[in-house]
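Colleagues,

For the teaching module next term, I've prepared a clean inverse folding example: a structure given as tokens, and then the sequence designed for it. I'd like students to try predicting residues themselves before seeing the answer, so please don't circulate the second half yet.
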């Protein structure tokens, strides 16, 4: 009822203005005369009425758009909620650098959970923007939050995500014309600091070890989920080395490495990460702040695509014995590029 009354109020003023213009044209003697002053006056009346209608409609549409953005922003915030500062023994920080206004609602997704198998994280990017991408991200995240606890290995988690995405896309596109897909990176940090991963078309993460920065690329990834079915064989995880006390793991969507400045130059992500840890180990929040600040400075405000950033740090100050916590690492230190 309140919504109907609001719409009636929005339509009432234009109707009054329109009726006044019609009455003036039909009933006012000046409107019936054809001399120049009368014609100028009639034109002025209709110009004022038309301008008023345009301004009123524009203001109404602006209010509606702002309300829709607030609702969509609240929905995305509830979906992509900030993780706790500590998850299963790891220092965690995450953020999203919003794109231009027309693309502020997108399909970037991330989550970190502590499980009996270790700390598990997902970073993903749904093709496209808008409400459709947001719904796909919700389907993937909802499944991950359950599967991460239930499945013994990341291969089982990925299978669950593929089935959930397939069901969602079939509901959204019953005709079978499906063009959406999701790039995805699954990461598991075990209690001894060992890092395992499965990658579906997503950028590989960076390890921040002291003042050293290395991208942990381990072979060719699987195709993005939704493009092709996963192989029927086992999905063995790849080892990305070890997260020792003080080391950090930096995950991101492709918007970070593809962001360009006014001259078309790509954002130097590796160089920025090296500057962020130049003076030694930094907390997850410090690394995140330095990278996101450099990103906004590089693109002079908002990038062309949404960017999600996630930092996991094996901090020595974390209470030992936490569920799924990364304890002092015993696995050997890997090479920079695996």
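(Answer key — instructors only)
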């Amino acid at each position: 009822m309140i919504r109907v009354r609001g719409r009636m109020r929005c339509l009432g003023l234009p109707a009054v203005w329109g009726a006044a213009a019609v009455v003036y044209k039909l009933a006012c003697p000046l409107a019936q005369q054809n001399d120049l002053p009368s014609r100028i006056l009639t034109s002025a009346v209709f110009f004022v009425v038309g301008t008023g209608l345009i301004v009123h409609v524009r203001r109404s549409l602006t209010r509606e758009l702002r309300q829709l953005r607030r609702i969509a922003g609240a929905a995305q915030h509830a979906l992509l909620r900030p993780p706790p500062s500590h998850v299963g023994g790891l220092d965690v920080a995450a953020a999203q650098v919003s794109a231009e206004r027309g693309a502020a609602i997108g399909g970037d997704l991330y989550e970190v959970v502590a499980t009996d198998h270790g700390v598990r994280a997902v970073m993903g990017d749904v093709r496209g923007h808008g409400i459709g991408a947001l719904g796909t991200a919700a389907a993937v995240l909802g499944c991950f939050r359950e599967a991460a606890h239930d499945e013994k290995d990341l291969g089982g988690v990925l299978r669950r995500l593929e089935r959930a995405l397939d069901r969602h896309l079939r509901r959204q596109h019953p005709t079978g014309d499906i063009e959406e897909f999701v790039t995805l990176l699954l990461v598991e940090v075990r209690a001894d600091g060992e890092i395992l991963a499965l990658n579906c078309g997503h950028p590989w993460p960076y390890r921040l070890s002291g003042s050293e920065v290395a991208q942990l690329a381990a072979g060719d990834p699987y195709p993005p989920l939704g493009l092709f079915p996963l192989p029927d064989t086992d999905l063995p995880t790849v080892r990305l080395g070890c997260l020792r006390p003080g080391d950090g793991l930096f995950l991101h969507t492709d918007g970070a490495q593809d962001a360009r400045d006014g001259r078309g130059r790509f954002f130097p992500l590796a160089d920025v990460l090296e500057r962020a840890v130049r003076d030694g180990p930094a907390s997850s929040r410090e690394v995140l702040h330095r990278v996101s600040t450099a990103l906004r400075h590089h693109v002079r405000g908002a990038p062309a695509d949404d960017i999600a950033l996630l930092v996991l740090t094996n901090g020595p100050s974390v209470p030992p014995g936490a569920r799924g916590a990364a304890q002092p690492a015993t696995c050997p230190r890997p090479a920079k590029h695996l």
